[in-house]
Amino acid sequence: MSELGTPDEDSGTPDENRAASEFSGLDGRSPRTPDKPEKPAEPKAPAAATPAEPGKQAEPEATAALKPAESTKATKSTEATSARRPGRGLLIASAVVIVVLAVATTVAIVSALGYRDDYRGLTSQNAQAQRAEDVASDYAVKAAEIDYRNFDPWFAALKTGVDDAMIKQFADTEPVLRQLLGQLQWVSKGTLVGSDIKSQNNGVYVVQVFVDVQVTNVQSPGGVKTTALYPITVDKNKNWAITDISGGVAPLATK
Predict the structure, then answer these.
(1) How far is CA 136 from the centre of its chain?
(2) CA 232 to CA 234: how far, in whole Å?
(3) CA dist., res. 43 & res. 129, Å (int)
(4) Which residues contact 214 (CB under 8 A, 6 or more apart)?
(5) Residue 188 in contact with residue 213, Cβ under 8 Å?
(6) 235, 245, 165: which is closest to 202 by C-alpha?
(7) 3-state helix/strand/coil string of 23-77
(8) pTM for the whole thing?
(9) pLDDT of residue 254
């Protein structure tokens, strides 16, 4: 130590002495400010996790993040499978349609059977009406065939196919008719023109029969042609017997 009590220059290490001289400017150089201590480096934020590349195994955190998506995908797959399967409502609707079709088919069959029965009934009625017309027409044509030289076939035809009341009526008038037509020297022959049903009630038909009658007699030796109208009643309930003749040989036109 020096006399002034100042520390000796040689005290300390050479580096420490040199540093002190530089700091104080004792070495003839301008003093310098000591270097600032470096700041500690700030910690860096952890890098965001990047999605795993295809084919590589994902980190545990990424695997946990993907679980909800996989669950949603599974739910959608289940819903799609359910949508492809027929639901209970669809099965019920199909059953209802089948029942409706079955009912409609049954109604159609019943209706068809009803129409068939109606058709058969109408056909039967037409057949019965036609038979009544045939019976009356055949009778009218035979009733128009008269020959004064032999009345027996004519009276036999008049009494065929009629009821007992008509047979009695012809039997009662036969003598008068023989005498009248004999005096007139009546000869006639009939040709059917046509017939139709005037009325029908409970199987009783009134048939109008039109017959062309060719007549010769003492008044018309050259012959005359007339159209006769025979209203004839035919009763189906009496085995299609004729029960009334409301006319006779009634001239409607002359040619």
Answers:
(1) 48
(2) 6
(3) 122
(4) 188, 189, 190, 191, 223, 224, 225
(5) yes
(6) 235
(7) HHCCCCCCCCCCCCCCCCCCCCCCCCCCCCCCCCCCCHHHHHHHHHHHHHHHHHH
(8) 0.54
(9) 39
pLDDT for 1: 45
Q: 7-11, 39-43, 92-96, 198-202: which has the minimum mean pLDDT?
A: 7-11
User: Going by C-beta distance under 8 Å and a sequence separation of 6 or more, which residues neighbour residue 136?
Assistant: 195, 205, 207, 209, 230, 232, 234, 242
Torsion angle of alpha carbons 197, 141, 246, 187, nearest 10°? 160
If DSSP codes are grouped into helix, strand and coil, which group holds residue 11?
Answer: coil
Strands 187-201 and 224-235 turn out to be unpaired
The Cα–Cα gap between 241 and 162 comes to 5
Encoding tokens for residue 61?
């955190």
- 129-173 confidence digits (pLDDT tens): 999 999 999 999 999 999 999 999 999 999 999 999 999 999 999
Q: Is 126 helix (H, G, I), strand (E, B) or coil?
A: helix
Instruction: Answer whether 160's CB lies under 8 Å from 89's CB.
Output: no
Distance from chain centroid for Cα 87: 27
Averaged confidence pLDDT in the chain:
73
pLDDT tens-place string over residues 178-206: 999 999 999 999 999 999 999 999 999 99
Topology of domain 120-245 in CATH is Nuclear Transport Factor 2; Chain: A, (3.10.450)
Q: CA end-to-end span of the chain, whole Å? A: 193
Question: Residue 33 contacts by C-beta under 8 Å, 6 or more apart in sequence?
Answer: none
Query: 240: closest CA among 165, 163, 159, 164?
Result: 163
Nearest in space to 232 (alpha carbons), one of 179, 195, 203: 195
Going from N- to C-terminal start, the domains of the chain cover 120-245
